[in-house]
Amino acid sequence: MGDNPLDNYSPFDDVQDPETKPKPAPVPAPSTSNTQEDEDDIAIREYEKRLNILESRINAQVTQLAVAQETGFVGNPPNWPAFYPLVHFDIEEVPPGLRSFVNEAMFGWCLMCIAFALNWLSCVCLLNAGDSVGSPGTKIILSTLYLFVVVPLSLDLTGLAVYRVMKIEPSTFAFLKVLICLSAATLFEFILAIGLDSSGSVGLITMLNLFFNGHWFIGILGILTTAALGLTCANHGRLVLGIWKYYRGTEVGANMENDIKKSLAVKVVEALNKSRSNDNNNNNNNNNNQH
């Protein structure tokens, strides 16, 4: 009889030893993106930044109220410049993250003082240039107006304007006012740096004419004046771009169009209410006169 294949069969032959049984491959954990966590961190940092700015502004207002109670003076008393205080200026009232704008604005105004003083001196020296420059008297008059009128106005419209905007909760119109004034100053300084005959400055064109006609000393003054005016123009131009970028990144700047429409609507309503109130007062006065 042949061998039976079932004689050597065992149902436990296929059972492996637990010690030698291969372990299942670990299932990789599902990959989670850190994008949401990064966005949350950025949002938290922005929120903390806004809180710090708000806290700084509240502290400034508390200090102002305390000074008003002690001195009876509404508003902060003048403290700048130190040798003859004319205006109030305290960089500590500005949030730390915004002080760079104020410092750059005040630095730009100091550069403007130097540039316009050099320009005035160069224009006065044109009296010794003969016929090399047309109408030196006009340049002297204009440069005098620039130094003693434009420079003081620029302190209020650019340097201190940036300081006032950055230390309070700004509005769209406040930002636009500062940006317009800074842009006008930048354009004005650029024109002076070119040095047209009618510009009232010893800029590039006037400086070249002086060198071509052999007036080396006044020409060197023209180089210094042109460089100072160009540096002032570049400083104000960079400040305009920096403030514009910051403004567009704020909540007010992100909704600029809507904010402008809302502000205009409020002003129109206020004007109409004021006009209506005046009409009512006039009618009441007329009625009283008739009686």
Please provide a written account of the structure.
The N and C termini lie far apart (148 Å). The chain has helices at residues 35-71, 99-125, 136-167, 172-194, 204-212, 216-249, 251-254, 256-290. It is built from eight helices and no strands. It folds into two domains: 48-75; 87-263. It has 291 residues and is mainly alpha-helical. This is Secretory carrier membrane protein. The chain crosses the membrane at residues 106-129, 141-163, 175-196, 216-235. It is found in: Membrane. It is a multi-pass membrane protein. Keywords: Membrane, Transmembrane, Transmembrane helix.
Terminal residue distance: 148 Å
Instruction: Indicate the structural class.
Output: mainly alpha
The sequence of SSEs as H and E is HHHHHHHH
Number of helices: 8
| Count of spatially separate domains | 2
Question: Fraction of residues in helices?
Answer: 55-70%
Mean pLDDT: 81
Shape: extended
Number of strands: 0
| Radius of gyration based on Cα positions | 36 Å
Summarize the main sheet: none
Strand content: under 5%
Which terms would index this structure?
single chain; 291 residues; mainly alpha; 8 helices; 69% helix
Summarize the structure.
The chain is mainly alpha-helical and 291 residues long. It is built from eight helices and no strands. It is 69% helix and 0% strand.
What is the strand and helix layout of this fold?
Blueprint: H1 35-71, H2 99-125, H3 136-167, H4 172-194, H5 204-212, H6 216-249, H7 251-254, H8 256-290
Helix pairs in contact: 2-3, 2-6, 3-4, 4-6, 5-6
